[in-house]
């Protein structure tokens, strides 16, 4: 709805840091399907859930059977397609699957080893299948989330021996793209576990990360080369060999001697954003179609570098995760246009001297319309140009229409405050003591009054008997 009334030529490029978020020392983060929630892994091993509408922490998941000394740092987090599960890879070699609503661990996979990435298969939105990318010893593989009876299907490799790599699913889940530690990007048929095609990334001997665009049409390889390499994706192609096609390289003269550490596409794939691993908080921006470097954005130096870029799924903003554990919110500049509320409003750049006309504010007859000098006439909206608010049409920023049984927000939960509860208990005890003292005082007054009445009645009786005796 917020994008229906925007101009078509609006600039959607990130431009400024509008906010800084901190919920512990953050090590990784991931958006849910519609960007309403943000999951963040921390160095203490917990998973913090942010509500993006209010930018506040709504949940924090941590295992009750682990002490602070036993808890391992979280290296990677990912949401399931329905938003009801979160998978997290830990630095102790374990993988945890969390139920978001129940706030409980569904499964803990031990002896997995260090993982560069772990996520759910796009073909199973319920979160029943995991795609695990080990950092050492073995190639990426697919397995189920249950603990027993699960077969591990290792991704085929174009090399003679299995090579560690980084795996990501295509949007429809039919294919898995694997970038390995020898600078090769491969396409694997997920259903048949068959190698379809492989590409050597120019001047690269290792693929660090693969980033898939929100619309599923573009893939970006972050390697140890001095350029980022982009691919075009067509997961609906009739020939499997045509699914992935090399597109172009993205280079920057300001980072010619540094390797790229992270990159991202915005929600519409219009730009390419990249950060170098050895530089300060600088984000290089390219036009995706032409490969032209548009600008270099400079953020706060206190970040000490950026380790991850996470673009919002439907909005023109992103999270730049700093090496210091803080999250910096990048967004485009929003220009306030007050004429949208009142067409007669005129924005003044400088102070102008206004000379009032003699009859400008005089009362007019009821039938004559009063107009002010310099007033802009109200334009009539052409019904053909008005946005359609009632007919269901696919949105360009919602690249899928399957929203059945998807969790977009968490229910409100009032978290108890121990200090407030202690204060309330003390006040209740004080009120109870006061009430008890009032009851005791009232009882004593009633007994004293009763005794006075009995004494008065006795005196009256005695005087009556004396009178009769006399």
UniProtKB/TrEMBL annotation:
Q: Does the keyword Oxidoreductase apply?
A: no
Q: Major location, coarse class?
A: nucleus
**Subcellular localization, as worded in the UniProt entry:** Nucleus
**What are the start and end residues of each WD repeat?**
67-100
List every stretch annotated Disordered.
358-402, 417-470
Membrane: present as a keyword of the record? Answer: no
Tell me the InterPro entries matching this sequence: RBBP5/Swd1, WD40/YVTN_repeat-like_dom_sf, WD40_repeat_CS, WD40_repeat_dom_sf, WD40_rpt
Residue intervals passing through the bilayer = none
Q: Which GO terms describe its cellular component?
A: Set1C/COMPASS complex
Q: Which UniProt keywords apply?
A: Nucleus, Repeat, WD repeat
Listed Basic and acidic residues bias regions? 362-371, 417-429, 437-470
The name under which this protein is listed is: WD40 repeat
Q: Which organism is it from?
A: Ostreococcus tauri (Marine green alga)
């Amino acid at each position: 709805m917020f994008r229906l009334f925007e101009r078509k030529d609006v600039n959607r490029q990130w431009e400024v840091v509008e906010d800084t978020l901190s919920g512990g020392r953050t090590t990784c983060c991931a958006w849910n399907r519609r960007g309403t929630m943000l999951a963040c892994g921390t160095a203490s091993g917990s998973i913090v859930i942010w509500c993006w509408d209010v930018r506040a922490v709504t949940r924090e998941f941590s295992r009750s059977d682990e002490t602070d000394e036993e808890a391992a740092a979280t290296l990677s987090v990912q949401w399931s397609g329905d938003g009801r599960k979160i998978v997290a890879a830990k630095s102790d070699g374990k993988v945890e699957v969390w139920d978001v609503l129940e706030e409980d661990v569904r499964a803990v996979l031990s002896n997995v080893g260090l993982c560069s990435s772990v996520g759910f298969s796009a073909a199973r939105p319920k979160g029943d299948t995991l795609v695990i990318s080990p950092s050492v010893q073995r190639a990426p593989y697919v397995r189920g989330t249950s603990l027993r009876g699960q077969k591990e299907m290792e991704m085929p490799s174009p090399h003679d021996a299995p090579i560690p790599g980084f795996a990501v699913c295509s949007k429809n889940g039919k294919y898995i793209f694997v970038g390995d530690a020898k600078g090769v990007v491969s396409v694997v048929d997920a259903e048949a576990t068959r190698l379809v095609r492989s590409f050597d990334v120019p001047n690269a001997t290792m693929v660090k990360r693969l980033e898939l665009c929100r619309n599923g049409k573009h893939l970006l390889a972050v390697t140890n080369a001095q350029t980022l390499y982009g691919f075009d994706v067509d997961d609906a192609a009739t020939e499997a060999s045509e699914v992935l096609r090399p597109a172009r390289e993205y280079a920057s003269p300001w980072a010619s001697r540094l390797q790229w550490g992270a990159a991202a596409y915005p929600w519409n794939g219009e730009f390419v954003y990249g950060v170098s691993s050895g530089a300060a908080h600088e984000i290089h921006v390219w036009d995706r179609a032409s490969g032209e470097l548009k600008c270099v954005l400079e953020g706060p130096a206190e970040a000490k570098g950026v380790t991850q870029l996470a673009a919002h799924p439907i909005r023109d903003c992103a999270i730049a995760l700093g090496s210091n554990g803080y999250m910096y919110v990048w967004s485009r500049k929003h220009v306030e246009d007050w004429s949208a509320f009142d067409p007669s409003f005129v924005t003044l750049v400088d102070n102008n001297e206004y000379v009032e006309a003699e009859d400008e504010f005089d009362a007019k007859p009821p039938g004559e319309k009063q107009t002010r000098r310099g007033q802009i006439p109200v334009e009539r909206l052409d019904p053909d140009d008005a946005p359609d608010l009632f007919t269901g049409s696919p949105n360009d920023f919602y690249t899928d229409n399957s929203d059945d049984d998807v969790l977009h927000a968490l229910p409100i939960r009032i978290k108890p405050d121990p200090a407030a509860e202690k204060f309330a208990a003390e006040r209740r005890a004080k009120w109870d003591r006061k009430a008890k003292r009032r009851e005791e005082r009232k009882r004593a007054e009633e007994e004293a009054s009763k005794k006075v009445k009995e004494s008065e009645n006795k005196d009256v009786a005695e005087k009556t008997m004396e009178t009769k005796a006399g």
